[in-house]
Amino acid sequence: MLTELNLGNNTFKEIPAVVGHLELLKKLYLYSNHISTVSSEVIGSLKNLCVLNLNHNQIQRLPSEIKSLTKLQCLSVAHNRLEDIPAELGHLIELTEVNFTHNCLSALPQEMYHCKLLSKIYLARNQLDTLPEGIQALTKLQVLDVAGNKLSMFPAEFHQLRLKELYCEGNKFVQCDPKPSVLGQEVVSLKELVARFVLHEDRNKSSLIHKTLPNYPNCVTLLAKSCYCTSCLRPILTTWLECVLFINLKVKNKKKSLTVPVRALLCSSKCFNSGDKVYYSVVSQKPHHTLFTVEKC
Ligand SMILES: [Zn+2]
User: Fold this and answer.
1) Which of 13, 81, 134, 187 has a CA that sits 20 to 30 A from residue 141's CA?
2) For residues 106 and 83, is the Cβ–Cβ distance under 8 A?
3) Residue 271: inside a domain, yes or no?
């Protein structure tokens, strides 16, 4: 039975339909063709695929049926025209390596962090201005290549990752150029206050709110976007102020330690001013990424 098929360096405009009948196929190479569309029918039937290589084609989008490839370990779609990645990628829980180098991606689905075995992620030369929050879930991640994007900072808790290789040159990282300033009056909306109360109560498994919350799906959806204050670790729905920490990372592929901006999610000015960490607020992302500190009283 055919388990490996290399159709690279041909002139296919799509994945040949007959490939969809090779249900035992484990490795499929289609690099350097003229493929612009990926048929959902063909992709949906290759349930045993472990390796899929579509490098150097003209693919703009991957079908959501990619979720059928539950055994896929290595997905490579480098040098294409991808504008987004389907959220269904999050179903591919066996994935260890993804390569989306040299595409047109402006965002990534947060669901990508469901692929908890990912150890190598290649995203160089795209249009990413942010990475989704929650990256610390990728505890096996060793190699991250985000060079040549438009990132202004890394997501919160980025420094918890145990990266061996990080490539991040050629981005638009915020610069640490502190300017003293006076902190304005703190106003937290009623919606935010209620959300924080509900999130806090929901942590208590015996609370009334924890038991009744599932009856309010709209609230559950809204609260799913919650995060934790970097300083006090209390749950929050929205951050009080866009803040950043500058963190020294030691990565094996760099001789010197690397100082990178990491997003800090803070609940209040109290947390901004407390502890021994120096948080900076981002005042102007454009055009010069100026930052300033708020002086501590
Ligand atoms: Zn806090």
Assistant:
1) 81
2) yes
3) no
Please check whether residue 30 is in contact with residue 15, taking contact to mean a CB–CB distance below 8 angstroms: yes
Question: How far apart are the CA of 204 and the centre of ligand 1, in A?
Answer: 19
Q: What's the CA-to-centroid distance between 78 and ligand 1, angstroms?
A: 40
**Which of 163, 143, 149 minimizes the C-alpha distance to 247?**
163
Q: 270 alpha carbon to ligand 1 midpoint, in Å?
A: 7
Question: If you measure from the C-alpha of residue 206 to the centroid of ligand 1, how many angstroms do you get, rounded to a whole number?
Answer: 24
Counting the structural domains of the chain, the total is: 1
Query: What DSSP state is assigned to residue 173?
Result: P
Show the domain range for 232.
190-236
How far does the centroid of ligand 1 lie from the alpha carbon of residue 269, in Å? 8
Distance of alpha carbon 39 from alpha carbon 265, whole angstroms:
41
Task: Write out pLDDT tens, residues 208-264.
Answer: 999 999 999 999 998 988 888 988 999 999 888 778 999 998 887 777 888 999 999
Q: 140-164 pLDDT, tens per residue?
A: 999 999 999 999 999 999 999 999 9
For residue 212, give the H/E element and its range.
helix 208-212
